[in-house]
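Exam revision sheet. Question 4 asks you to relate a sequence to its structure. Input first:
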Amino acid sequence: MDKVGNFIKKDDHITTEEEPDHDGLCLLEQQYLLNAIVNDQDLSSHLLDAISSLKIVLAADESVRTGLTVIL
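Answer key, structure tokens:
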């Protein structure tokens, strides 16, 4: 921002036309899970990532409610 509070750079517009829609994402997830079942693929790293994400969200919520820093 400049000295009077105006943005210096213009917005970048990112198109997502090539990205799948909601149904397309659901299909990809189902195919991924089916592949994991058929090929006995270990998905534990995905579970650990989900747990880590939840810890961050819960810590952020606690920090907002208490006004304190939450150490992870």
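Marking note for examiners. DSSP finds two helices and no strands in the chain.
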